[in-house]
């Protein structure tokens, strides 16, 4: 009986570890995908003169990747998601007085 319970606990732990690894890989892929053009601009600047507005494009992509990372963290972290949804419900359930 205890052998089966240990194996169930081990399977539960392994599934939880795989979920964490999957989330980490998703976040790393977002950073690599959106950070790749930034690296290309840096490499181009070593060899030739970079395009006219290369820093604007690079900063835009860095900002975009940070935004997507924050969304991913909020989606993956259940306590943070609960707080956001609770606040959203509180704001939407308030009665707004009107003047007639």
Number of strands: 0
Question: What is the SS-derived class?
Answer: mainly alpha
**What is the distance, rounded to the nearest whole angstrom, between the alpha carbons of the first and last residues?**
72 Å
- Count of DSSP H/I helices: 3
Mean pLDDT: 78
Shape: flat
Number of domains: 1
Q: Provide the gyration radius in Å.
A: 23 Å
H-E string: HHH
The helix fraction, in percent, is: over 70%
Report the major sheet: none
Runs in which pLDDT lies below 50 for 5 or more consecutive residues are: none
What is the beta-strand fraction?
under 5%
Report on this structure.
The structure is a single chain. The protein has about 100 residues and is mainly alpha-helical. It has one domain. It contains three helices and no strands. It is flat. The relative contact order is 0.08.
Descriptors:
single chain; 100 residues; mainly alpha; 0% strand; transmembrane helix; membrane
What layout of secondary structure does this protein have?
Elements: H1 2-47, H2 54-76, H3 78-92
Helix pairs in contact: 1-2
Organism: Adineta steineri
Keywords: Membrane, Transmembrane, Transmembrane helix
Protein name: G-protein coupled receptors family 1 profile domain-containing protein
Offer a quick outline of the entry.
With 100 residues, the chain is mainly α. It contains three helices and no strands.
């Amino acid at each position: 009986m205890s052998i089966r319970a240990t194996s169930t606990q081990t399977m539960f732990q392994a599934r939880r570890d795989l979920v964490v690894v999957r989330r980490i890989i998703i976040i790393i892929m977002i950073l690599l995908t959106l950070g790749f053009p930034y690296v290309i601009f840096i490499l181009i600047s070593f060899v030739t003169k970079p395009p006219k507005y290369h820093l604007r494009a690079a900063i835009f992509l860095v900002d975009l990747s940070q935004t997507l990372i924050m969304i991913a963290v909020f989606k993956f972290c259940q306590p943070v998601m609960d707080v956001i949804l609770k606040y959203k419900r509180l704001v939407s359930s308030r009665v707004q007085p009107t003047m007639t």
